[in-house]
Design goal:
- There is one protein chain.
- With 626 residues, the protein is an alpha+beta fold.
- The protein is built from 21 helices and 20 strands.
- The strands form seven sheets. Strands 11-10-20-19-18 form a five-stranded antiparallel β-sheet, with helices on both faces.
- A hairpin with a 6-residue loop joins strand 19 and strand 20 (591-600).
- 39% of the residues are buried.
Length: 626
């Protein structure tokens, strides 16, 4: 075996193992440098920071946030039941309640407690107290426990049931307080007040609501839901009782309406009597203050009892409310679209005066018929008749008072030496008067009217506009549709000198001590597009309707008034709608009333009869409450 030879490399690129043993004078001496003190300092600082962070978190969770985590821990081993708050009270303009919150008690079941302490004897006794068959109650409890952690076994318990269950004191069953909505004179105020119902899945998208809540579904209850609904309370159920975790619910704010309780009842009863005596079922009426748009009374037939919704609807009730062709939930005042008939004549008359088509002194002779040539067949001219034969000279005032169709055919569509307004100008003025707009009443479901035009007819029906179309809309027929709300609002504007106000049901929001929280001020929407002298002329023309015309029944009122009657043909020769609108007193109007009755076989003066009875009562017997 040869003796090994060892060499020292002098290469600059690599090192042999032996070279690592050279003394520190070598250029490779940095292979054994000591660790820097800075590394030890950095490591120490990081440890101190980490320790401080751990201590801070421990202090925060153990001391600062102790109450929060203790509360969460309690909730994890308890059941947190949120108490639905009592809704705010709805009152009339004088503070008379239209709805009450009656105390109620429900039987709440905590599924976990019932599972842990099942007692068939307790279940049978509870079933007996609730007057339910034991087997049915047992099945209900078993199925509900599987599906829910908390649920109601019964609601609206009577006093004896509450005492019996409390005496029995069964595990997992708790009596919880609640309130039940009760509507005073429900039938008579339902279209205004509306009703409440259980929340659905869509409602639960709002974080405020829970499955045990109710929500406004119609009328004021729906419109002012956020005002009326209040704040939830809560009760904790568990082995550890902590009263500090419980919270009382807070009742919602109260709402004062412009509605007058006595006037509303009178309007309802009078319209009901007229409908019942005539074998009819559909109609509506509204009364407003012309000076500010406040809605003092509003009814729509057929009506409904909003108390039916509180305990749940039977199958028959559901069908009558939601499937009936009469549509009792449909508010005809704000959602119904009707031909205005002759009640549009004051508007057409003012338009003709404004445009200079006529003066108050211009006349036509006789109010019988109007014949227009038929361009397609000269031997078959179009004949437009008045609703009755009247002879003599007719100026605007007499035409309004006697409701002469021939006069308004002439000023609207033209005839003889009177050029007429034409469809475009009628469209311009009606839209300026908001006939095709929503007025913004504080109720859900308002519809906007429809004003036809030549362009619309050509685009939608591919038909030309004829002179007869203009004649029709000039007397409130044809394709012209308005809501009774708009009709009453424009007549109110004539009464007050020209201002169309936003119709308002609510007057203000108040707290439980009747302190004002929010006041809803009157709001002007527009001015009638007519000069003051034109409006005053029409106001006097409407008084003439009472003095010598078709509204002579109002002459027995102790105050001056203005009015306009109207009929609108629904099914030619078979069915009409009867309309009437009036304001009083003449100089400083307090009321404007509009009544519409659907489906009369002939012009029996039904609408004017109901309106007259209300106005006569108001100006002779009515005593406003302080």
């Amino acid at each position: 075996m040869l003796k090994g030879e060892y060499k020292i490399s002098i290469s600059e690129d690599w090192v042999q193992p032996e070279e690592t043993l050279l003394d520190s004078g070598s250029e490779y001496s940095n292979f054994e440098m000591p660790i820097s003190k800075d590394i030890f300092r950095l490591t120490f600082v990081m440890i101190v920071i980490l320790f401080a962070m751990v201590m801070a978190f421990t202090f925060k969770t153990g001391v600062s946030d102790h109450e929060i985590y203790a509360s969460l821990a309690l909730q994890n081993k308890s059941v947190n039941f949120l108490i639905p708050p009592p809704r705010g009270v709805i009152m009339d303009r004088y503070g008379k309640p239209l709805v009450k919150n009656l105390p109620s008690f429900d039987l709440l079941v905590i599924s976990r407690e019932v599972r842990e302490n099942q007692s068939e004897d307790d279940q049978n006794r509870i079933a007996g107290i609730l007057k339910i068959k034991p087997e049915e109650f047992k099945t209900f409890i078993l199925n509900s426990i599987k599906a829910n952690s908390v649920f109601f076994a019964a609601s609206d318990l009577n006093k004896d049931q509450v005492l019996a269950i409390k005496y029995l004191n069964p595990n997992g069953y708790y009596i919880v307080p609640n309130t039940k909505r009760y509507y005073i004179d429900g039938h008579q105020f339902s279209q205004v007040a509306g009703y409440i119902g259980k929340v659905n899945k869509n409602d639960l998208k709002d974080e405020y609501y829970y499955s045990t809540d109710t929500i406004g579904r119609l009328g004021i209850e729906a419109q002012y839901e956020k005002v009326l609904r209040g704040e939830h309370g809560r009760i904790f159920f568990g082995k550890e009782k902590d009263e500090d975790m419980n919270k009382d619910s807070v009742q919602g704010s109260n709402l004062v309406l412009n509605i007058d309780y006595d006037l509303q009842k009178k309007l309802y009863n009078e319209l009901y009597e007229v409908l019942a005596s005539s074998g009819l079922s559909r109609g509506m009426a509204i009364i407003q203050n012309p000076q500010n748009g406040a809605v003092l009374a509003m009814v729509s037939f057929p009506s409904f009892d909003n108390n039916d919704f509180i305990g749940g609807l039977s199958d028959n009730q559901f069908k009558n409310l939601f499937e009936s062709k009469a549509k009792p939930l449909f508010n005809r005042v704000i959602s119904g679209l009707y031909n205005p008939g002759s009640t549009i004549k004051p508007f057409i008359g003012m338009t003709a005066l404004q445009e200079g088509v006529i003066t108050p002194q211009d006349t036509i002779r006789d109010c019988i018929s109007l014949v227009v040539p038929n361009p397609s067949d000269k031997n078959s001219p179009y004949v437009f008749k008045n609703w009755r034969q009247d002879y003599g000279l007719f100026n605007l005032r007499r035409a309004i008072a006697q409701s002469c169709n021939i006069f308004f055919f002439t000023v609207g569509g033209g005839f003889g030496n009177i050029s007429g307004l034409g469809a475009e100008k009628i469209y311009k003025y009606l839209t300026a008067g908001l006939a095709n707009m929503e007025l913004g009443i504080d109720l859900p479901g308002e519809e906007k009217g429809f004003v036809p035009s030549p362009d619309w007819k050509l685009q939608t029906r591919d038909e030309n506009w004829y002179q007869g179309d203009t004649y029709n809309i000039s007397v409130g027929q044809g394709d012209l549709l308005v809501t009774p709300l708009w009709l009453n609002s424009y007549i109110s504007a004539i009464a007050n000198g020209g201002t169309i106000y936003k119709p308002m049901i609510a007057q203000k929001v108040v707290d439980g001590m009747n302190n004002d929280l929010e006041i809803f001020k009157e709001q002007s929407l527009a001015e009638l597009p007519f000069r003051d002298d034109v409006i005053q002329e029409m106001k006097s023309d409407m008084e003439e309707t009472v003095i010598s015309g078709t509204a002579g029944i109002l002459k027995d009122l102790p105050v001056r008034s203005g009015a306009k009657t109207g009929t609108a043909e629904v099914i030619k020769g078979k069915s009409i709608n009867s309309l009437f609108t009036a304001f009083a007193p003449f100089d400083n109007p307090e009321l404007n009333i509009t009544v519409l009755i659907e489906g009369s076989a002939s012009n029996q003066g039904l609408a004017i009869r109901a309106a007259h009875n209300v106005l006569k009562w108001y100006f002779t017997e009515y005593q406003p409450r302080p």
